[in-house]
């Protein structure tokens, strides 16, 4: 039995953040009913590449394990049917419609929770539920830029860069799921639901926790540093003869071992590098010594040697390298869906050693219209 069995989620959303939040809940056992516009449905249905059944890989990735119903928001009868569904069955509503759109169609948090106080209603915003920008739309790259993440990403001598994945969409989906789960627990105590508000901007600010703390403490903002990590030296990526290896030497003892593995034991006795504080001061010189040594052999050879010595390291991998790596294969996080001859990333957690997994099917547009509304009719 999965933890959220018998919990019903109504998803009023599209693209990534809202659907990803409800997919997390679906993987944990909730029944998720996805509400879509009959004219095309979720925007990700048209995103490439396509699978062998003609469906979008992006759509599958965020919508496996759900049901799909179609509601024409311009049709009062459809709105009435949807509200009846929510009042009759829903424990949780998740919406990431354009700002103010839910209220316009009488589907906003205040109205629905007034009618059904035990309902948990999750709003996903771009900029947040307060302030002068609260009604503005926004997307992941925009919020990475606005939150300061873009300014800290990339090489120091080049223009800022966005993170290469939908970091804030997925992160906001996670926060939404966390909020919904907390509200479920609260409801078991009080009998009342809650209104949960999350946003891409607040997720971005949350991810900036350490840089913001550093700035508030020192008055100095961290700068872009590429692969170079903070606080310890060396903590950077180095070019080997066939690829980049990222190395993090956390203690002075590790540094002495690192120098032995590098074939440059004398560096550990150099006054410029004996302590992390000294290495931080003289990082440029030390980095050149390391770079010269690392270039003499392959990434795998250096990784094996450093791992044997107890030095944390990791290669910069392509997606192909990642998916075929024995560690990733052993984790079993990729789940196969034979109907479309594809694999997708599962939930990044296990419960009692088992990774929760929802039904290996992403619904066609409106696939469950008849079943969902027939169930309501049968229930009276």
What's the quick description here?
With 380 residues, this protein is of the alpha/beta class. It has helices spanning 17-27, 57-63, 76-89, 101-104, 109-115, 140-147, 167-190, 200-207, 209-218, 252-262, 276-281, 283-294, 299-309, 319-324, 326-331, 369-378; strands at 8-12, 31-36, 67-70, 92-95, 120-125, 194-199, 235-239, 244-248, 313-315, 334-337, 342-345. The protein is elongated.
CATH class of the largest domain: Alpha Beta
Structural class: alpha/beta
Instruction: Name the overall outline.
Output: elongated
How many domains comprise the coordinates? Answer: 2
Q: What is the total tally of β strands?
A: 11
Number of helical segments with 4 or more residues: 16
CATH level 3 topology of the largest domain: Rossmann fold
Strand order of the largest sheet: 3-2-1-4-5-6
Average pLDDT figure: 95
Alpha-carbon distance between the termini?
29 Å
The fraction of residues in strands falls at 5-15%
Largest sheet: 6 strands, parallel
The sequence of SSEs as H and E is: EHEHEHEHHEHHEHHEEHHHHEHHEEH
Give the full name of the CATH homologous superfamily of the largest domain: Crotonobetainyl-coa:carnitine coa-transferase, domain 1
Ranges where pLDDT stays below 50 over 5 or more residues in a row are none
Q: Helical percent range?
A: 40-55%
CATH architecture type of the largest domain: 3-Layer(aba) Sandwich
Chain-wise SSE layout:
Elements: E1 8-12, H1 17-27, E2 31-36, H2 57-63, E3 67-70, H3 76-89, E4 92-95, H4 101-104, H5 109-115, E5 120-125, H6 140-147, H7 167-190, E6 194-199, H8 200-207, H9 209-218, E7 235-239, E8 244-248, H10 252-262, H11 276-281, H12 283-294, H13 299-309, E9 313-315, H14 319-324, H15 326-331, E10 334-337, E11 342-345, H16 369-378
Parallel strand pairs: 1-2, 1-4, 2-3, 4-5, 5-6
Antiparallel strand pairs: 7-8, 8-9, 10-11
Helix pairs in contact: 1-7, 6-8, 7-8
């Amino acid at each position: 039995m999965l933890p959220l069995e018998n919990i019903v989620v109504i998803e009023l959303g599209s693209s990534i953040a809202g659907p990803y939040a409800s997919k997390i809940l679906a993987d944990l056992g909730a029944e998720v009913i996805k509400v879509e516009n009959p004219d095309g449905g979720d925007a990700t249905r048209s995103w490439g590449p396509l699978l062998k059944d003609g469906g979008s890989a992006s759509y599958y990735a965020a919508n496996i394990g759900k049901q799909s119903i179609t509601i024409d928001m311009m049709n009062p009868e459809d709105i009435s049917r949807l509200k009846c569904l929510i009042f009759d069955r829903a424990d949780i509503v998740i919406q990431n419609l354009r700002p103010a759109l839910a209220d316009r169609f009488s589907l906003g948090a205040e109205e629905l929770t007034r009618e059904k106080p035990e309902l948990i209603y999750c709003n996903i915003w771009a900029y947040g539920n307060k302030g002068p920008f609260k009604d503005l739309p926004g997307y992941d790259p925009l919020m990475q830029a606005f939150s300061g993440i873009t300014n800290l990403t990339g090489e120091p001598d080049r223009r800022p860069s966005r993170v290469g994945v939908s970091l804030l969409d997925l992160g906001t989906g996670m926060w939404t799921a966390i909020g919904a789960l907390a509200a479920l627990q609260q409801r078991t105590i009080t009998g009342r639901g809650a209104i949960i508000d999350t946003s891409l901007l607040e997720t971005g600010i949350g991810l900036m926790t350490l840089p913001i703390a550093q700035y508030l403490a020192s008055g100095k903002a961290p700068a872009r540093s590429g692969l170079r990590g903070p606080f310890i030296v060396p903590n950077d990526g180095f070019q080997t003869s066939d690829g980049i290896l990222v190395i993090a030497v956390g203690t002075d003892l590790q540094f002495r071992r690192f120098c032995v593995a590098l074939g440059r034991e004398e560096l550990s006795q150099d006054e410029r590098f004996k302590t992390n504080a000294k290495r931080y001061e003289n990082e440029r010189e030390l980095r050149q010594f390391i770079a010269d040594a690392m270039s003499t052999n392959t990434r795998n050879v250096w990784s094996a040697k450093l791992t044997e010595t107890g030095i944390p390291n990791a290669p910069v991998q392509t997606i192909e390298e990642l998916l075929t790596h024995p560690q990733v294969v052993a984790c079993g996080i990729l789940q196969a869906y034979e109907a479309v001859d594809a694999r997708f990333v599962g939930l990044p957690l296990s419960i009692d050693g088992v990774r929760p997994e929802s039904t290996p099917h992403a619904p066609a547009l409106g696939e469950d219209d008849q079943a969902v509304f027939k169930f309501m009719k049968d229930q009276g």
